[in-house]
């Protein structure tokens, strides 16, 4: 009996240890809300209270679970599903009881990530007229601009190719959600920790 009890205690201890590691684990490929500290610091500061989730008027902020490898209970945004709308008053930041989300006074302070265009998937780069990401960008003609040029193999038509200004893009993800191309989506927001492209 003593051996079985000890065995159960060991299994319980290992399960608790693994759960603690999952809760602590971050994911530098995930889009965090506006004002998030760098990932390691963010995970240390975030108390998983859910106040940012509750304050978001668009339900854009979701809470991580063990299946996503995001750190249980930490906030994230799935841009393709429901991007950040860059609220004027940033309620998610204002309700944060720690400095996990901080330092946002206007849209230009936001640094969630940077949009990246897959020119193979983007129909605009193939000569089809599409300006959806450009028109929907809250920083139109700043974060996304159009490079207009004559189509090389068709001198009677123009290409209206979107280009990203990486210095101006705040990574809200509205362009990703609005993209008319799917499988793969032609524009994605890469969280600020990720340096690679598609």
Automatic annotation (TrEMBL):
Keywords: 4Fe-4S, Electron transport, Iron, Iron-sulfur, Metal-binding, Transport. Residues 35-66, 73-106, 160-190 form the 4Fe-4S ferredoxin-type domain. Pfam families: Fer4, Fer4_7. InterPro entries: 4Fe4S_Fe-S-bd, 4Fe4S_Fe_S_CS, RnfB_subfamily. PROSITE patterns: 4FE4S_FER_1, 4FE4S_FER_2. PANTHER family: DIMETHYLSULFOXIDE REDUCTASE CHAIN B, OXIDOREDUCTASE. This is Ferredoxin-type protein NapG. The lineage of its organism: Bacteria, Bacillati, Bacillota, Bacilli, Bacillales.
């Amino acid at each position: 009996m003593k051996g079985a009890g000890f065995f159960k205690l060991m299994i319980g201890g290992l399960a608790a240890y693994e759960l603690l590691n999952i809760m602590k684990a971050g994911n530098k490929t995930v889009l965090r809300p506006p004002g998030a500290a760098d990932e390691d610091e963010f995970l240390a500061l975030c108390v998983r209270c859910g106040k940012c989730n509750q304050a978001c008027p668009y339900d854009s902020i979701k809470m991580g679970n063990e299946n996503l490898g995001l750190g249980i209970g930490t906030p994230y945004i799935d841009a393709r599903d429901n991007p950040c709308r860059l609220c004027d008053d940033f309620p998610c930041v204002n309700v944060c009881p720690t400095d996990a989300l901080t330092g946002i006074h206007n849209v230009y302070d936001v640094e969630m990530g940077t949009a990246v265009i897959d020119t193979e998937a983007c129909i605009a780069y193939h000569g089809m007229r599409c300006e959806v990401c450009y028109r929907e960008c809250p920083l139109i003609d700043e974060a996304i601009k159009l490079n207009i040029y004559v189509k090389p193999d068709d001198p009677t038509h123009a290409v209206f190719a979107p280009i990203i200004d990486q210095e101006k893009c705040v990574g809200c993800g509205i362009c990703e959600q609005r993209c008319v191309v799917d499988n793969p989506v032609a524009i994605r927001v890469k969280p600020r920790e990720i340096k690679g492209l598609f």
